[in-house]
Amino acid sequence: MINLNDKTLNNLGDQQKCHSNALEYIYETEFNDDDDLTKQFENYIAEPQLRFTLDPKEWWKTRFSKYPVIGDLAKQYLTIPATSVSSERCFSTADNIVFRKRASLSPENVNMLVFLHQNKYLLNKTC
User: Fold this and answer.
1) Which of 21, 38, 84, 123 is the most buried (most CB within 10 A)?
2) Model pTM greater than 0.70?
3) Which of 73, 80, 75 is nearest to 41 (CA)?
4) What region holds the HAT C-terminal dimerisation domain (predicted)?
C-alpha cells in the first residue's frame, strides 16, 4: 500500500496545474514586460511561412526560445502519437455520426462534426 502524506499531495498539486482549455493555458502563463504573449504571437505570425520541404520540428528547435508559449502548444499538437488509438477513436466518432438515418450528411458536415467532437475538450475540459 502506498502512503502519501498531505504535504506530498500538495506538492503534486502545485507541480501540475490543470487548465480547462488551451486558451486558459496561454492566458495564465506569466510573462515579463519584454516577452508578453501579444508580441510573441505577432512576431510568430510575421515569420515567413515554412516551405513544404522543411521540417517543422527543426524550425521549432531553433525558435522555441523566441516563442516559448506557442512552442509548448506546437509540441503538443505537432507530435505523432505512438499508437493508433486516436485515429481509431476518430473513426469510431465518425461511425457514430454517420449512420443509416444520417447517411445523407455531406462530407464537409461530417468532417466538421468529427472535428468539433474530437476538439470539444479544448473548450470544456474539467479537472
Assistant:
1) 21
2) no
3) 73
4) 41-119
